[in-house]
Write a structure and sequence with these properties.
355 residues, mainly alpha, 15 helices
Length: 355
């Protein structure tokens, strides 16, 4: 199948839409602790849906995984575990830096490391990417994406400055720049391990193609192993919280004063399934980016911020913000959309001979 970077950008936008939207169904969950609904949703996003779709849409999933070298399975799983730590410490970053600065730092690290480390590791960044015109356009697009993330952080910082002292204390009462920077660095680098896991899963991709899987679905078996690693980290942490907070009864309690069990399970499952589709579309988009598939991670990060910001506008989270804050918010959206176009154009140039 001939790569189609424009289609790949659309797939990445759909993935960003899924990622930016997945938490909305959780808002309908009532009287459950975070660890309870997060783990229920996680069973769908990290176990049930990946196995179901990979089984339906790829050729002989079980046979593919049996033939995969044990070392490959281990590294893909381990990168999933490490990515899980990145997600768990993301909340700690918000605690020390606040939502705006914390998110900008984590996503900035995640975008930079997740995009650049794979080609650097394989020794092609300086030998094949930078010398080519298409590679230079992509690197410029990555820089534009990081600028967009910085503008998003600026919008958030501006919004925080407009909050009252009581509101600030509630949001960032434990503000600590030194701790925050350290945790944000750890969270960003660990979160980028998802990109490393996809890269390490190349042998799985080759095997599933040999089993007759369509090029478009070749990344789905990798997600099965990678998300199992993420599930491992989150399962251990959520169970520990269930024990500490005595919230384990929430999974089963159906008394008259308990949570609405059926709707809670439904909305948690919907949230988890929606979350999974970010990487379902990501792997589809990656197949369309040609020889510079590493740039998919930048497109993914940009799309997440774009759609999560649009949800924030739709849910009135920016209500009452000043013109200055709205200015930086719209600048960030414009710059991030532009970065996806630039990266997509660079990948298009990469499909042309000798460019």
């Amino acid at each position: 199948m001939t790569p189609n970077p424009a289609l790949g950008v659309v797939f990445h936008w759909l993935g960003g839409l899924a990622s930016g939207s997945f938490y909305v169904p959780f808002r309908a969950v009532k009287r459950w602790s975070w660890e309870t609904y997060w783990l229920v949703g996680g069973f769908f996003s990290w176990i049930i849906v990946p196995w179901l779709l990979a089984s339906l849409m790829t050729g002989d999933l079980a046979g593919t995984l049996r033939q995969t070298p044990a070392s490959t399975l281990f590294w893909v799983w381990l990168f999933g575990v490490l990515w899980g730590f990145g997600g768990l410490t993301f909340g700690l970053t918000m605690r020390y830096l606040g939502m705006s600065l914390g998110m900008a730092m984590v996503l900035g690290y995640c975008a930079a490391f997740g995009t650049l480390i794979p080609p650097l590791f394989h020794g092609v960044f300086f030998s094949r990417v930078l010398p080519s015109h298409s590679g230079q356009v992509i690197v410029f697009g990555i820089a534009v994406c990081l600028a967009g993330i910085a503008c998003a952080g600026k919008a958030g910082t501006s919004k925080e400055r407009e909050m009252s002292e009581v509101e600030k204390k509630a949001v960032i009462g434990e503000f600590n720049l030194r701790k925050g920077v350290l945790v944000a660095t750890f969270s960003g680098v660990m979160s980028a391990c998802f990109a490393f896991g996809l890269d390490a899963g190349a042998p799985i991709r080759a095997l599933t193609l040999q089993h007759g899987t369509s090029t478009l679905w070749q990344g789905l078996p990798i997600l099965v192993v990678l998300l199992l690693g993420g599930f491992t980290t989150n399962f251990v942490w959520c169970v520990l919280l269930n024990i500490r907070n005595r919230s384990g009864r929430e999974y089963f309690s159906a008394g008259p004063q308990s949570a609405p069990m059926l709707s809670n399970y439904f909305f948690s499952a919907l949230a988890g399934t929606t979350w999974y589709f970010q990487f379902f579309f990501y792997t589809m988009g990656e197949t369309q980016m040609g020889r510079y598939r590493f740039s998919s991670w930048t497109l993914h990060m940009a799309s997440i911020i774009i759609f999560s910001s649009l949800w924030g506008i739709g849910l009135h989270e920016w209500r009452g913000a000043s013109r200055r804050t709205w200015f930086w918010l719209f600048v960030s959206l414009f710059v991030l959309v532009a970065s996806t176009v630039i990266v997509g154009y660079g990948n298009y140039l990469g499909t042309l001979t000798g460019v």
